[in-house]
Amino acid sequence: MDYLDLIDQLDALDDPASVWKAGVRYFRHFGIDGVYFLDLSSIERPKALWSHPSIERHSHSVGLTRRPDPLQQCFKTLRPCPTGADFAKDHPELSEGERALIEAFGEESGLKTGSSITVKRHPLGRGCGFNILSSLGREGFLKTFERHRTDLVMGAQLIASGLKPEEVRQPDDASRLTSRECDCLAFVASGLRIAEIAQRLGVSVVTIEFHLRNARQKLGAQTRDHAVALALMRGAINP
User: Fold this and answer.
1) pLDDT tens per residue across span 176-186
2) What is this structure's pTM?
3) Do you know which InterPro entries this protein is assigned to (predicted)?
């Protein structure tokens, strides 16, 4: 398979969700085990898509602490940048915290090698693109990437052209949240305690806990903070 085959596939697809699934399958053909798409064009409301649960947890960790995603550094150039734990030491611009985060992700997921593919460059990193990750070793991944560089880079551009991240819903998407559930999540994001939210809305603490529990279930979140991070990432609430 090459990017010309991908063109034929994408021409037959009408919706972004199908484009995303086709894109993940395309990358998998080249030994890519994890795909992460990040759009920082609107820095206040970044959009992210992922194909691996460990990538979601990584995104949650970054979003919850409001730290810049390390991938943002790669969006300053159109040149692909090596990513993953096996290449972390090659990036002196990374802070110790960012390097530790990348290494922890690699240990958890087994995806220690990868490369960025920038689709839209921005001098401050507010662009968009992919992080393609693999369980191949450092040398194996470099050989694979160089062998299929054109197909990977062109494929990323084609996939991105068919993606509207805000329209591609992850499982248990935020569109099912009620307005009151969004209000409760927004108040939690602002730092209010449950009792303070209840007082603000004029309802009982039990009612607030009920709304937050429903929101967590709809978003597929493990914790209340996780639900807030997912709601922020998917644009259900504003930062």
Assistant:
1) 788 899 999 99
2) 0.67
3) Sig_transdc_resp-reg_C-effctor, Tscrpt_reg_LuxR_C, WH-like_DNA-bd_sf
